[in-house]
Specification:
The chain is α/β, with parallel strands linked by helices. The chain contains 14 helices and 14 strands. It is about 40% helix and about 15% strand. Helix 1 packs across helix 2, helix 3 packs parallel to helix 4 and helix 5 packs parallel to helix 7. The longest helix has 18 residues. The two termini are about 20 Å apart. The structure holds iron/sulfur cluster (2 copies).
Length: about 375
């Protein structure tokens, strides 16, 4: 499996964001966890935790609010501008997520401010409002990720619990491709999360991605956790006085993929890799699993060895819809109403968590996280 991001794309990004490119190259020479940088390379901004969908498997279910909720968990435009400014001054990368970011009522003002600040920015969307904001997206973003769970309306709409969502998303993607014309940016990526219900549909999604002429298709393995992980995590928090919530989807052991389903999944994915060898579509599994790893991964086994040091606590901060600033897995290191991002990044709480990760004391929640390379 190789990443097909072309030299042309890399040069376009480097020309547009030279300081980001210099930092990126310097991190290739000296790994980020061996440095003490004073500002994160990546800021993930949950501009709103409101969403216009209500997917049954949403991993942000606890923090996500619906339209009718009294507490919308949404930042104000001024808060958002403050975060954009600080991120842009530090030549870091901004990743806008939700809830549904395009559902934020002043999203046009956010796009204008992003353009004014010439910041390298990515946005993840469920696609329902893509068509409406296609022009702004093309003018502003460097990357866009669009969730798609099925290659036809029946599979996608059923999984999402939202009738008509497939057609809206596909029309939106077509509009983006049309408006981008011969330009390289934004890079358009479709993201599919594997579930029991779409294994047999993966090849159809692959063909659809090719037909739509998107740049990348990310196949995400389901990031789930079970009661054992919760119990181990609680012990970890007591022992090390650090760590917190678990991100991901809780499932009970009865809902694991069966051996037959796992075998089918391996076969389908291998077929897709074979097909993609002769195509310009970049197919990226996340995380990368060897065939033998699929069974223990989907049976919820804890890996014996972790072969990498996670970069996230050394490179990334999350700003949540209620203003909390989070390092990883609910470890709160400040709040935007009291601290700027640099203060949060340099806080004692952040340092304590990084120390644990540096000492290979991964939290039990880390075992089900996609950021690590592991062996069962
Ligand atoms: S679209 Fe995303 S944020 Fe909204 S409910 Fe679905 S998974 Fe959750
Ligand atoms: S591996 Fe652990 S520290 Fe790294 S992103 Fe995942 S949960 Fe966070």
């Amino acid at each position: 499996m190789h990443n097909k991001i072309s030299l042309n794309i890399k040069l376009t990004l480097a020309r547009k964001f030279p300081y980001n490119a210099i930092k990126f190259l310097s991190d290739k020479v000296i790994p980020i966890h061996n440095k003490n940088i004073t500002f994160p390379r990546l800021v993930v901004l949950y501009i709103t935790e409101l969403c216009n969908m209500n997917c049954p498997y949403c991993i942000n279910k606890k923090s996500r609010k619906t339209k009718t909720s009294p507490n919308s968990n949404t930042l104000s435009l001024n808060d958002i501008k403050k975060i954009i400014k600080e991120t842009s001054i530090n030549s870091s990368f901004l990743y806008i997520v939700g809830g549904e970011p395009l559902f934020f009522k002043e999203i046009n003002e956010v796009f204008s401010y992003l353009k004014e600040n010439n910041i390298c920015v990515s946005l993840t969307t469920n696609g329902l409002l893509l068509e409406r904001y296609a022009s702004e997206i093309i003018e502003t973003l460097s990357f866009i990720s669009i969730s798609l769970d099925g290659g036809n309306a029946n599979v996608h709409d059923t999984l999402r619990g939202s009738l008509g969502s497939f057609d809206k998303t596909i029309n939106g993607i077509k509009e983006l491709i049309k408006k981008r014309g011969n330009n390289i940016l934004p890079i358009i990526k479709i993201v599919t999360v594997i579930t029991k219900s779409n294994i047999k549909n993966l090849i159809e999604i692959y063909n659809l991605c090719k037909e739509l002429r998107v740049d990348e298709w990310q196949i995400s393995h389901n990031c789930f956790y079970d009661q054992d992980v919760i119990n181990n995590n609680n012990t970890f928090i007591k022992t090390y006085k650090s760590g917190k919530n678990i991100e991901g989807q809780f499932i009970d052991t009865n809902s694991y993929l069966s051996n037959e389903e796992i075998t089918l999944l391996i076969n389908e994915i291998n077929k897709i890799f074979k097909l993609s060898e002769t195509s310009s579509l970049n197919v990226t599994p996340y995380p990368i699993l060897k065939d033998d790893d699929f069974y223990p991964y989907y049976q919820g086994k804890i890996p014996k060895n972790i072969n990498s040091l996670c970069n996230d606590p050394f490179s990334r901060l999350n700003v949540r819809g209620n203003g909390d600033v989070e390092l990883c897995q609910g470890v709160i290191v400040g709040n935007i109403y009291e601290n700027n991002l640099r203060e949060c990044w340099l806080s004692k709480e952040a340092d304590d968590f990084r120390k644990l990760i540096r000492d290979n004391k991964f939290t039990p929640a880390c075992h089900r996280c996609c950021e690590l390379k592991f062996n069962f």
